[in-house]
Write a structure and sequence with these properties.
Phosphatase 2c, domain 1; about 20% strand; alpha+beta; 10 strands
């Protein structure tokens, strides 16, 4: 559109300059010269025609651009609504855990993913993933990952097997450049154990009786190689313990000075608010990140807070 308008503008400017020169140098001949009069009349008429044609072309291109933008916006709106429907509408509570979660896209559609599921056998499953890339392609892959995960967890496999199957699937349906960091955990309220697998994701932070502990055990990100095995870690939670699961959009948020928000700052904020409702802790963390960067998010931000409730348990350990 701008190429057409620019070309027509050059034509118009050239003709107007020519007409101006003729007026300046031929002003004394204008009344006595039919040729000069005809030339100026022709030049002015041509300039008007070119101007009208240029405006008409610009108008057509603007209409076309508006239709394209409207179509793209409609597609993005539809994709956002579909993605919003994939996130859990209600987070389970009453089985020894309570939750608060949020995902804030950087570009309207997120490649981050979180889920919390109450299974028929009494287990509570939670997951957070960060798909490589951004925008619609990452969102499509995220939706695929969510659907496959929900199918696999209902088969009763162990956490390590669940993540291994998910990794195999991701490797099969994507090219070598695509992968996902992934944190997966299952909670059994009978023994108050959280069994987890960390597939290359930022290590969740435990606040409370296991202060300073990082849930690191697992393996490489999903989809990197066709056959991956994952280790399973365990942590026994006491009442009041909080697990902070997050994506790099939180800790790697960069201030204008170039400094990152960082894990230590996140841990200190949650620890200072440990007795507040999880929703309030979530709000304060996001507020702190916004104040730190003082601009719109440059990466998707996902935060999942998990608090253990009920009777106190013993010490924590990993296998």
């Amino acid at each position: 559109m701008w190429a057409l308008a620019g070309r027509d503008t050059l034509y118009l400017v050239g003709i107007l300059l020519l007409a101006g020169l003729l007026l300046f140098f031929g002003r004394d001949l204008l009344q006595g010269s039919v040729l000069v009069t005809w030339g100026l009349t022709f030049g002015g008429t041509t300039a008007v025609v070119v101007l009208v044609a240029a405006l008409y072309r610009v108008r057509i291109e603007l209409r076309r651009s508006r239709r394209q933008l409207a179509r793209r916006e409609a597609e993005l709106t539809f994709a956002r609504e579909v993605q919003r429907a994939l996130f859990p509408k209600h987070l389970p509570s009453g089985d020894g855990l309570e939750f608060s979660a949020v995902c804030i896209p950087a570009r309207g559609i997120s490649g981050d993913y979180y889920d919390v599921m109450q299974l028929p056998d009494g287990r509570v499953v939670l997951a957070v993933a960060d798909i490589s890339g951004k925008g619609v392609p990452a969102a499509i892959l995220m939706a695929n990952l969510q659907a496959v995960l929900r199918m696999i967890v209902e088969s009763g496999r162990s956490p390590g097997e669940v993540v291994s199957k998910l990794s195999q699937h991701l490797h099969q349906v994507t090219d070598a450049s695509k992968f996902a960091t992934f944190f997966y955990a299952e909670w059994n309220k009978a023994d108050r154990l959280l069994r987890y697998v960390n597939a290359g994701h930022h290590s969740p932070i435990v606040i409370g009786s296991c202060r300073g502990q990082r849930l690191e055990r697992g393996g490489l990100p999903l989809g990197v190689f066709p056959d991956l095995e994952f280790q399973t870690g365990e942590v026994e939670l006491a009442a009041g313990d909080i697990i902070v699961v997050y994506s790099d959009g939180i800790t790697e948020a960069v201030a204008r000075s170039g400094d990152e928000f960082g894990e230590q700052r996140l841990e200190k904020i949650v620890e200072s608010l440990a007795h507040e409702p999880l929703a309030e802790i979530q709000r304060r963390v996001l507020e702190a990140v916004r104040n730190w960067t003082n601009r719109e998010p440059q990466d998707d931000m996902t935060l999942l807070l998990v608090r253990a409730t009920g009777q106190l348990a013993g010490r924590s350990e990993e296998n």
